[in-house]
Write a structure and sequence with these properties.
Elements lengths: L9 E5 L6 H15 L3 E6 L13 E5 L13 H16 L3 E5 L1 H15 L6 E6 L2 H4 L5 H12 L3 E4 L2 H11 L6 E2 L19 H4 L5 E6 L8 H12 L4 E6 L5 H10 L6 E5 L4 H7 L2 E4 L8 H8 L4 E4 L4 H4 L6 E4 L4 H13 L1 H18 L2 H16 L2
Length: 383
């Protein structure tokens, strides 16, 4: 098959527009493809939060869910399918790339069925994590998750771990291409001119440890606080907590109980992650499970070594003993010891920081990963 790389594609993208790795990847991918001349149509219930301002070749189509007294819960899946159908027809899209299996892949299948066999549009589904590890394994969703994946024209996963989880948990037989998450290495890099307000976060010159997450139980915020409490007993340190979620209050209470609350700053959800990472000396991500770990990759790209766990995705991103350290889930003592070792040994720290940055540049740049997606698109389209 000869692939015509000069042909510009018309691509529909559906993702969750809120904060989260899947929405970030989908939006940044669309913007990068648009820069290359491809026509991108975002279809969602709200404008993706990374899609601010005007971008050439980028269009947004809002899904409106009509209110009808018969429905106790409005059928977003059907409204999305209809909007996909309309956009595909009106703009003659080549393919629809949906991020997250449920409900996006389901809606895409419905839209394609509505179009009929005569329309050549292809559907590609990218699996990101909890759509498989959490939602997809609910008994009420397992069969529709499997069906939606199997009936996509192409399927990708952001890590080998997620690929294996999908095959094992859902008995999926559809070939799954592994295309990792990416990072904008020009945005996420050490910048001496960056106004990261380090003096505000650490006015006494303490080392800055950062944790970034949606603060769900899987992120193990109790371990974050315990590790920091141990570290702060051995050297001057401060902890910056970025994000919000159901575990935030419990983490705050534990910080008070352990006597470190005055050295912990809860910033809530933030957009300026790159600036905050410029303030950080170490990233702490002790999750119970991660399909990839986008915040880990962003830290590495900034030259910030990572303390994480052997919980799936981080094992494919962090070079244990070179760009960070990996411990067993819940091993607070080991994570604390590794953090102290790095923060005390300046020569070791500089080596880890350099390897972290190089790791991002060699494997996870937005340019390299976008090219992988584009090649995959063309293979599915036969162009």
């Amino acid at each position: 098959m000869t692939i015509d790389n000069s042909y510009k594609l018309k691509i529909g993208i559906t993702c969750y527009p809120t904060y989260g790795g899947s929405g970030v990847l989908a939006t940044e991918l669309g913007k990068k493809l648009a820069e290359q001349g491809h026509e991108i149509h975002f279809v969602s219930y709200a404008l993706p939060y990374r899609l601010k301002g005007f971008y050439h070749n980028v269009y947004f189509h809002e899904v409106r869910v009509s209110s009808y007294p018969l429905f106790e819960y409005q059928p977003y899946t059907l409204s999305l399918a209809v909007k996909m159908y309309d956009v595909i027809q009106e703009f003659n899209l080549d393919l629809l790339h949906v991020h997250y299996a449920i409900p996006h892949a389901t809606s895409a299948w419905i839209a394609k069925e509505m179009l009929g066999d005569d329309h050549p549009v292809k559907v590609i589904t990218t699996l990101h994590g909890t759509d498989i590890t959490l939602v997809g394994q609910e008994e009420s969703f397992k069969s529709i998750s499997r069906f939606s994946i199997e009936h996509s024209d192409g399927v990708t996963a952001v890590s080998r771990f997620l690929h294996d989880q999908t095959v094992q948990a859902l008995q999926v037989t559809k070939p799954i291409e592994i295309i990792p998450n990416f990072v904008d290495t020009e945005l996420f890099k050490r910048n001496s001119k960056c106004d990261c307000s380090r003096e505000m976060l650490s006015p006494d010159g303490s080392k800055v440890i950062i944790h970034i997450s949606n603060m769900r139980p899987v992120k193990r915020l109790q371990d974050v606080i315990k590790v920091f409490a141990s570290v702060s007993r051995q050297l001057k340190a401060r902890l910056v907590m970025v994000g919000d979620g159901p575990e935030r209050a419990g983490a705050h209470r534990l910080a008070e109980e352990l006597g470190v609350c005055d050295r912990v700053t809860f910033l809530g959800a933030q957009e300026s992650i790159a600036s905050l990472l410029n303030c950080a000396d170490l990233a702490l991500q002790p999750s119970a499970s991660e399909s990839f770990g986008l915040s880990i990759l962003e830290a590495l790209s900034t030259g910030v070594p990572v303390i994480s766990t052997r919980c799936g995705g981080p094992e494919e991103v962090v070079l244990d003993g070179q760009s960070g350290y990996l411990s067993e889930v819940g091993d607070v003592e080991q994570m604390s010891a590794d953090a102290v070792r790095l923060l005390r040994d300046e020569s070791l720290y500089k080596s880890f920081s350099a390897v972290a940055r190089q790791r991002a540049l060699e494997n996870f740049t937005i340019q390299k990963v976008t090219a992988k997606y584009l090649n995959y698109y063309r293979s599915i389209l036969g162009r």
